[in-house]
Design brief:
By secondary structure, this protein is mainly α. The chain has helices spanning about 15, 30-50, 60-70, 80-95, and strands at about 55, 75-80.
């Protein structure tokens, strides 16, 4: 297990001005720049560890589903908020049968 944080900035004005904020003090990446950064990470981690499992944790749903759609056929990855909830619900239904 190797936890990785991809810091793409923040749109929180207070944090952008806070000298003690540890995150990237730049406006949040959006659009093509955002997806290019994630893609660079995905390519690099898979190059280093070909059988890696990437868990997208706490990605907003407007980002999570497009990322899953893009990588699902050639990267081992999942998003616990989307797929984990579905799997837990299915397990509950199957257990109730």
């Amino acid at each position: 297990v190797l936890p990785v944080v991809i810091d793409v900035g923040t749109d929180n004005e207070e944090l952008l001005k806070d000298d003690f904020y540890l995150g990237t003090q730049k406006k949040r990446l959006k659009g093509a720049e955002y997806y290019q950064l994630v893609n660079e990470f995905m390519q690099a981690v898979r190059h280093r560890w070909p059988n890696v499992l990437v868990q997208f944790e706490d990605f907003s749903s407007d980002k999570a589903q497009p990322l899953l759609n893009h990588y699902r056929d050639d990267h081992l990855c999942f998003n616990d908020d989307i797929q984990g909830t579905g799997a837990t619900t299915l397990a509950g239904v199957l257990g109730a049968l």
